[in-house]
């Protein structure tokens, strides 16, 4: 840093949004020293402001969510549920000739159901 001041590592989110800054989008006044890593602490980058919820609470909620999702996934693998499907229906006597039927014989009667 040399003779340049060592400023605290704070993002622009932590500065007062209602103050009349010279540059509103950067929350910066003219003549004010800029952080050495200024481009890393812009408002669309890292937010170093403290979180409103403690980390152990967030971790606990995440682990509860992850455990419940894994439990539901396991139950879905054990007890799968599929939509009921009827047999495939083909036109023209169930495509009797195209599926290798004998052209000299009469094809069996096929009942087409309407769903």
From TrEMBL:
Gene Ontology CC terms: mitochondrion
InterPro entries, per database record: NDUFB8
Keyword annotations: Membrane, Transmembrane, Transmembrane helix
Transmembrane segments: 62-82
Protein name as annotated: NDUB8 dehydrogenase
Gene: Ndufb8
